[in-house]
């Protein structure tokens, strides 16, 4: 038997800086991910999102794109973006 192929992606964690409506932030994140062929999945944690790519691996360039996105929202929230990781292993 062979091991399944890894599904590389990363996780975005959002921690509010103040009591604000995060609808605009979440909508903008969806817009950026969809415009760049990425798949966003909300994790059970309040503001945690898993970012992958349909039929391919997310890359460091994808991660850097969202690091740039996060800087635009730093007044509203502290946004942490994980390193690339095998999302299959992370789910276990």
List the helices and strands and how they pair.
Elements (H helix, E strand, L loop, with lengths): L7 E9 L6 H13 L2 E5 L5 E6 L6 H12 L5 E5 L3 E2 H5 L1
Antiparallel strand pairs: 1-3, 1-4, 1-5, 2-3
Q: What is the number of helices? A: 3
CATH architecture grouping:
2-Layer Sandwich
| Mean pLDDT reading | 88
CATH topology: Alpha-Beta Plaits
Top-tier CATH class: Alpha Beta
List the secondary-structure elements in sequence, H or E: EHEEHEEH
Q: Based on DSSP secondary structure assignment, what is the total number of beta strands?
A: 5
Estimate what percentage of residues fall within beta strands.
Answer: 25-35%
What form results from the Cα inertia axes? Answer: globular
Q: How many angstroms does the end-to-end distance come to?
A: 19 Å
Number of domains: 1
Radius of gyration: 14 Å
| SSE-based structural type | alpha+beta
Low-confidence stretches: none
Could you describe the largest sheet, including whether it forms a barrel? 5 strands, antiparallel
Fraction of residues in helix: 25-40%
């Amino acid at each position: 038997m062979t091991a399944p192929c890894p599904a590389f992606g990363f996780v975005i964690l959002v921690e509010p800086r103040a009591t604000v409506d995060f609808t605009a932030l979440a909508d903008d994140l969806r817009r950026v991910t969809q415009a760049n062929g990425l798949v966003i999945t909300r994790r059970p944690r309040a503001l945690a999102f898993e970012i992958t790519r349909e039929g391919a691996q997310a890359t460091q360039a994808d991660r850097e794109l969202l690091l740039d996105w996060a800087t635009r929202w730093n007044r509203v929230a502290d946004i942490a973006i994980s390193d690339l990781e095998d999302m299959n292993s992370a789910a276990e």
